[in-house]
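new request in #modeling-help
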Amino acid sequence: GAVVSQHPSWVICKSGTSVKIECRSLDFQATTMFWYRQFPKQSLMLMATSNEGSKATYEQGVEKDKFLINHASLTLSTLTVTSAHPEDSSFYICSASWGQEAFFGQGTRLTVV
Amino acid sequence: AQKITQTQPGMFVQEKEAVTLDCTYDTSDPSYGLFWYKQPSSGEMIFLIYQGSYDQQNATEGRYSLNFQKARKSANLVISASQLGDSAMYFCATTNTGFQKLVFGTGTRLLVSP
């Protein structure tokens, strides 16, 4: 299957700082990537759909200015959590669709202290 | 809008036995896909099996099979000959035509005992 690489796998940052998470499709071109957030023992909630060369489409209730998404190329999408606060601590995971399947990155565990 | 319902928060099964994880869905799209993913404690999402809404036969992938009943809008996952390594969270998900997004259920935690 196709490979999606997400980096970093975990990060600890101070409150008020920004954190960038990268999602790369390694062996295929992904015109569309998805960003999810998962709280402990809960399901994955779609945050936004990232489209190469255009603005991301955010789900209702997701703050566009806090969660900046950039899909600069067909293999890279980035999620930047700006001015992070402890309530932003969560597991963030990206995915890319290829054909009829969706492939996921390894996820990033963000802890804001 | 699509919706996935997984009514079993947790399931227990003994090693080598079969187990069925329930999933019902609701969608207004005429064409859709149904997925099952496994999420171990490490957090990665592992693709298990896919069923297209127009597929005539139930999907199978090794020990995994999907019991697709379109009229009942159910897509249960059957794991045969359970192994200790099958202990994990299992998520059912659906997508619409054009794969615009995946919608996940709340998941079922499976525990396989020796």
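bot summary: Chain A touches chain B through 22 residues (CB under 8 Å).
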